[in-house]
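The record is given unchanged here:
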Amino acid sequence: MRHMWTDWVPTLGGRSVRPILDRMDYALTQLLEGYQVSEQGNFEVPLPQPATYQDWLQEFRDASQGARPGLELTGPWKGSQRAALVASSAGGWISRIFLARRPPYSNIVYHGADRVHTLVTLGTPHKSAEPVTRRNIDFVNDNYGGAHMDDVRYVAIGSKTVQGKSWLNGAVQDFAYQSYNICIGDGSAWGDGVTPLECALALDGAHHIVMEGAKHVPLEAKPEQGVHWYGSGPYLEHM
């Protein structure tokens, strides 16, 4: 399931990510119950009601109340089907909340592990030194640390493709340097251009994979130059 960038705005600044979790919960259950995605529909699961501007404002005012319009949450899953969940960037640590059966997050437990047999994270910052981002990530690591669910296989994938660079004694820094510095305090580290390798693999108990040449953002992929996104081309066999 893909999210529009506007879906993320109400969750920024260390706010609750419950609106994202609610939509993940709904979409996964729809898929397990037989909904067929298509290329014509951008491989997305449509929500029962389209969100309005007023819905977006409600989420922005208090994201901890969940998605608007409201969605019926699945709760403990009684079916036998389970899926592999592949999550990119922040979606990885958000998915770790989704899998848990306890403790609650924003007063909700999603029981995602009932429906997921494998979680694959792509370039996910599983730790952060930046104060605002740490609010949620520290909660995840304190309450759902490492490969938290015994009945789920965790796979953490990172990249050693882009080294952060600075010039003039650090006065000028490229984006990778700034991003890596936020995550681990070392801008000159290696990573995927956004998430340093150290952060992407900071998930104890997971199976770790390093993908050479993988970039964080799909739009940055240049196959003719041997530069790909995690989920494209030659990397799919690792999934």
The chain is about 25% helix and 15% strand. The mean pLDDT is 90.
